[in-house]
């Protein structure tokens, strides 16, 4: 277990991995895998366990009317829960990898050769563009 929540690592498929992201969708996994493999990391992806669901408290049973059938009573009493979304955990085999340090340290490159920015990592931008850090800008 990590000392703090900023540098997580787990064993994924029997390999010790630094966690890049948990509960990622399939589209997000494809994006992260592309960026991380371009930067020469070995990526390990496993399915996340389904979230624990607390069953709802049963409603107080009202006396069924004479017209109610057994099917309608059963349908009202036990609604089926919605299916859990399929999510994945993405990790890299380099346990020194930390996504926060990699992004803000400008260590990752996008497949086009540009620096990966926070907006690009979060997929708020389609294409990365090299931002000049505030400390390199002229006064």
Q: From the alpha-carbon coordinates, what is the Rg to the nearest angstrom? A: 23 Å
Distance from N terminus to C terminus (CA atoms, Å) equals: 44 Å
What proportion strand?
15-25%
User: What's the overall average pLDDT, rounded?
Assistant: 80
| Structural class by SSE content | alpha+beta
**Poorly predicted residue ranges:** none
Output the number of helix runs.
4
Roughly what percent helix?
10-25%
- Counting structural domains, the number is 1
Order of helices and strands: EEHEHEHH
3D shape: elongated
What is the strand arrangement across the widest sheet? 1-2-4-3
User: What is the tally of beta strands?
Assistant: 4
Query: Tell me about the biggest sheet?
Result: 4 strands, antiparallel
Task: Explain the layout of strands and helices.
Elements: E1 9-12, E2 15-24, H1 26-38, E3 43-47, H2 70-77, E4 88-92, H3 99-104, H4 118-121
Short description:
By secondary structure, the protein is α+β, with helices and mostly antiparallel strands. The protein is built from 4 helices and 4 strands; from the N terminus they run ββαβαβαα. A hairpin with a 2-residue loop joins strand 1 (9-12) and strand 2.
């Amino acid at each position: 277990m990590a000392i703090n929540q900023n540098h997580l690592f787990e064993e994924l498929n029997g390999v010790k991995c630094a966690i890049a992201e948990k509960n990622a969708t399939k589209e997000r996994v494809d994006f992260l895998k592309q960026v991380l493999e371009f930067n020469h990391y070995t990526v390990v992806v496993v399915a996340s366990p389904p979230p624990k669901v607390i069953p709802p408290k049963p409603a107080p049973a009202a006396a069924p009317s004479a017209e109610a059938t057994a099917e309608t009573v059963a349908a009202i009493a036990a609604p089926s829960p919605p299916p859990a979304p399929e999510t994945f955990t993405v990790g890299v085999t380099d346990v020194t990898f930390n996504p926060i340090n990699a992004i803000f340290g400008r260590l990752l490159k996008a497949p086009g050769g540009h620096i990966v920015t926070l907006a690009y990592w979060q997929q708020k931008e389609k294409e990365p563009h090299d931002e000049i850090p505030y400390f390199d800008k002229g006064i």
